[in-house]
Amino acid sequence: MFTLALAIMAMAASAQTVKVGFKKGDVRKYVTKVDITVGVPMQGEEKVSSEATNTYTVTDATADGYTVELKNESYTTTGKSEIAQQLGDVSSYFSALKETPAKLKLNKDGAVTDILNSDAVLASISKIAIDAVNKFYADHPEIEKQAPKSKALMAVNDQITKENALNLFKDNTIFSLNGKDLVATPEEDDTIINIIKVKSTYSVSNDGSNLVINKKSVSNMSEDDLKALIKKFIAKAGQEVSDSEFDQMWGQMKLMGMAQIDANETGTSNYGEGGWLTSNSDDVSMTVMGAKTKVSIKSTLQ
């Protein structure tokens, strides 16, 4: 989303599946569209769509690696945007790069290794995240009694660190699998929208001069993994539960058949000259604690 939308539009390099050969002055603009449908038992469906335009500009290229400026040109949503946020979609954070583009350091394989202007980027992301929390509580004042806004703001603030921001750009840009050999190692442990643990399998082929990478992922979360995920959601909402309260809630979930997660993902990414992504399509279907979610992602080079 952008845990879904960006994380899936990226792919590989290294003894390299994708051979990167970026040049100083290279500019690539991508439009990513994400459609999310969530079906809640006995409540019907809720939908949200987003569209983001992001530009990558290579400002330096040496034998040791690259410096790339990542700038957001536009970001829009329709529908209930909080759905995407609750699922872990980080796409809205990229809108913070409209006024403060990120200066990313890449190694020679095209993998992200650092954020050269991390302080400025973190400040911009923080503002976006805090504004989203304030808007949510303004739209849903009844939530305050269950989960005080002050705790939600603290939880958000704790997540905005350089380490998390670096992982954001490693996992959710077109460079996310750079540096990996997907032919020699076609399987890996992965996540969907940075939440659901999956086992991903890749296949690589060529279509003329273009490289094509197909991806299939299947969930492999244990009961302990799911418990940890639920606790994470509770903390993110600014709520607190004791161990005994959680055990009681978990028992009720098992009785209702909600103590499980199933997920499947299929995607195709195409690469052209210089190892630049040219297009991507991805479909995710998952059932999380009884709620069925479908995500469709399409990214195109303009």
Question: How would you explain this protein's 3D organization?
Answer:
The chain has 302 residues and is α+β, with helices and mostly antiparallel strands. 28% of the residues lie in helices and 40% in strands. It contains 8 helices and 11 strands. It has helices at 2-6, 81-87, 118-139, 143-146, 149-159, 162-171, 223-236, 243-255, and strands at 27-40, 44-62, 65-79, 102-107, 112-115, 187-192, 196-207, 210-219, 261-271, 277-288, 291-301. It has an 11-stranded antiparallel sheet with strand order 5-4-3-2-1-11-10-9-8-7-6. Strand 9 (261-271) and strand 10 form a beta hairpin. Helix 3 packs antiparallel against helix 5. The radius of gyration is 20 Å and the shape is globular. The model is unreliable at 1-14 (pLDDT under 50).
Strand and helix layout:
Blueprint: H1 2-6, E1 27-40, E2 44-62, E3 65-79, H2 81-87, E4 102-107, E5 112-115, H3 118-139, H4 143-146, H5 149-159, H6 162-171, E6 187-192, E7 196-207, E8 210-219, H7 223-236, H8 243-255, E9 261-271, E10 277-288, E11 291-301
Antiparallel strand pairs: 1-2, 1-11, 2-3, 3-4, 4-5, 6-7, 7-8, 8-9, 9-10, 10-11
Helix pairs in contact: 3-5
Summarize the structure.
With 302 residues, the chain is of the alpha+beta class. It has helices spanning 2-6, 81-87, 118-139, 143-146, 149-159, 162-171, 223-236, 243-255, and strands at 27-40, 44-62, 65-79, 102-107, 112-115, 187-192, 196-207, 210-219, 261-271, 277-288, 291-301. It is built from eight helices and eleven strands.
- Mean pLDDT equals 85
Order of helices and strands: HEEEHEEHHHHEEEHHEEE
Q: Proportion of β residues?
A: 35-45%
Strand order of the largest sheet: 5-4-3-2-1-11-10-9-8-7-6
Shape from CA axes?
Answer: globular
Outline the low-pLDDT stretches: 1-14
> How helical, in percent, are the residues?
25-40%
SSE-based structural type:
alpha+beta
Spatial separation of the terminal alpha carbons: 20 Å
Strand element count:
11
Determine Rg (CA atoms, Å). Answer: 20 Å
Number of helices: 8
Report the major sheet: 11 strands, antiparallel
